[in-house]
């Protein structure tokens, strides 16, 4: 096990000493020591989410899972995979591609994000419309509790439904309840064919966008994504500055072409359609997944970078993306926004002066509140996380979160103040 002196980081969530365990047993011993001696522990995987939550600049120990990686078991016939938590996501996808399978998730920065970090944050991308969230992909976990005890939740087969689904307790808990060491995931076959249809609304007619989206969602088509992209983001990805829908299909070739033909039959007037097939579709999404700031990399621009995750009722995504675009001029910011018409989740990337970024976040929070939605800050420099509540208002069921944290981690050593309400 490696042990290193550690330097501070502008995104916080660091540690005075960094340790790099290679086994679950080493992790257990580290946590036993910390729990017994009142030492706080911050967990890091690939570091891409270092700016997500956290009100402590540096814990006593930074527990890195960078050396806890590799495939434990792959049952090809059952389409399940058990893997160590520190394994980079794209490394897994490359391995599974050889077996004509994949994990049905599409996280940001897949070359660096670890499977453990993705599950701990319950991350998902535009293809959530068909794939679901990280929580939906998990069928079993091995977890080290703060006292060093190792537990297993779920199982290694898809049809494991006995008792309470303990996986849900840890997925999305931001590492505050235990250290994930192994994850068992259900897989899906690689699609035989895929395409990405870019439908650009050249006149920015939102009534037309809404009408089209409602008609398409009510059809029997099965898109993998129906993602609305703001003009500034569309310009970055396609070279054309229009509100654009990225409509993805994954199936056999005839089925994909049938759905493309259906799209052409209901294409609104004064719109432009571009179809990206196979490798071109993959390259589009590869670029898309590097839009947001990468928490493991230093920000060289001097500008403040922030990411806001917003959840609203499905078609209210149109209002959120439009409002985000309008804020560029009023707040002197570069804002790149996208949201799923079908699952209601939006991501807003803001870059500019710190005061303008904070003001824009507060404006969007108030705007979303009127829509009965929520807004969570997924990335922000540590110094600014002291000035604004990252998670927003505590939910009505916050007492449950607090009670579970107190029961599992009574000494509050694990990722303290990283989650909702300073848990």
From TrEMBL:
Know the name of this protein? FAD-binding oxidoreductase
What lineage does the source organism belong to? Bacteria, Bacillati, Bacillota, Bacilli, Bacillales
State the PROSITE patterns in the record: FAD_PCMH (PS51387)
> Any idea which UniProt keywords this protein has?
FAD, Flavoprotein, Oxidoreductase
All copies of domain FAD-binding PCMH-type, residue ranges:
11-190
Record PANTHER family: D-LACTATE DEHYDROGENASE (PTHR11748), GLYCOLATE OXIDASE SUBUNIT GLCE (PTHR11748:SF103)
